[in-house]
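From the pipeline queue, job 12 of 40. The input is one protein chain; the requested action is below.

Action: predict structure.
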Amino acid sequence: MKGKPLFLRPLAAVASGFGIAALFPPYGFSQLIWIVLLPLLFALWSLGEGKRKRKALGLGFLTGLAFFLPNLAWLRSVSDAGWAALSVYLALFPAVWSLFAATWGNPWRGEEKGLFHVPRHALACALVWTGLEWLRGWLFTGFGWNTLGTGFHQSLVFAQNADLLGAIGLSILPVFVQGVLLQVFVRRVPRFQSDGLGMRRRIALGSVVLVMVGAYGYGMWRMISAVKVDSIRLNALLVQLNIPQEAARQLWDATDIHLGYEDETLEALGVVDGEAVHQLGGNTPPKPDWVLWPETALTGRILRADNGEWATAQENYNTLDRIREGGDDFTLMLGVNEMEAEREGDAFMMKPDARVWNSLAVIPADGKLQTFRKHHLVIFGEYIPLVDKLPFLAKIYEQQSGAKYGGAFSIGESLDPVPVDIRGETVGVIPSVCFEDTVPRLLRKFVRNDGPQIIVNVTNDGWFKDSPGAAQHFANARFRAIELRRPMIRCANTGVSAAITATGSTVHPDGGRLQELRDANGSHFTRGHLLTEIDIPKNPPATLYAMIGDWGVIVLAVVGVLLGAIPAWRERKLDAMPSSPS
């Protein structure tokens, strides 16, 4: 771009940012994943020596803004300031990567040396990009949504590779491929065709072919082998009311909420006005083993004593009793607020300074309660850092969201799966509440290799109204099934209620039936219920990601830095050596 107008490089940076945003809902142009970084890479690698580092940081930051500002626009439903601040913060990560790519990772600085010059630089850039994506998903509790690898959410064959290094690790593939092809076909064509450098070109292209064929072949093998396992068939009923919200405040009153869950559930169970409805024609659907309601479904809290005894508000008891008109042979799972309590005589009383948890409750027909208490709290939603010392932060939250700050939830402690019965067989539930199904480092801690397991998520994307936030949440969440090779069911208030196979698909393998709750127009923002069928492998595999977690990506990121830094250090050392006298 030397000698070209000054705006071309910024334009290239913006094009890459918009291209990455286009991979995700509401756009979903996942095919662009193979070209989105080409404009930015060319702009970075072609920079002159003058102010290279400063220019690289600026171009990367511009790419980050062009990606995150449109990609996270759904956050404006809660806070314009929060949307802008988070986007600016997240844009720092592509800025740091651009600094690396323009310096240590730049193959067009200095002389080309060695047969593996091309793939080495492309790999270094790919590994560092992936490491920085991991870092933004971990630092300050992290926001790991919409990594480049998550762009494969519509390309399930390539997505199967997520069981190796996680969805984050998938980012290595498109960055490496684009880095190699840009070097081969744009800058160095004359060099590759002269001076005996044809071997270097063949090695470069061969590395791309090898990586692509390997990734595609592995994905096909995983998808084929996943259906050839001994499984337990789970019938699960998902109930979604699509209750409108303003931040955390639901706009229905408690009576309407409780009646809504009762009526929708009983209708699905074939009970109307207390009478069973007999379906004709032999098409009676199977009775559900589990009934799922979403996060914080009922308005009353559960009071829980240290010995496991529990009580709840009368309106909760009434609703739980009424849905049993549909049968006593199912287990109810629902999101609920759980509060620390103690028994005083016949009553349960809240403890002084009682902890409150956002929980997933499991209630079988015998009423014996199990709960999972949420671990990964949402910043400025379920807690505000330093709010006790800086109370004005609560006022800022209330001003931005339009809702009163109700105090912080406590963090759960247990990492044990929840055992739940399916027709006499025990299945381990990997529990998750709200956005926890987008945090792979948490869910992998629940994996056990001694029997069947399934991921269960209850969530509520109603904070963000009818925005792309729900679809983006789902696009990220489905990778947990692939990473861990455990199927998943998720029930949302507003969002995507669906059953997901261990290959990340929502299409049932028997007959190709779509198992997502949608209305007649295909929208997920609807009230209704869905009876899903999902096969739970009795002996699920132990995936590499479940065993090593994010350490694979972390180690490879360090390798990427060294691949760029060591040759650069050697070149500087040679340049500093005095030349020998002639």
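Job complete. Residues 231-375+411-539 form a domain with the Nitrilase/N-carbamoyl-D-aminoacid amidohydrolase fold (CATH 3.60.110.10).
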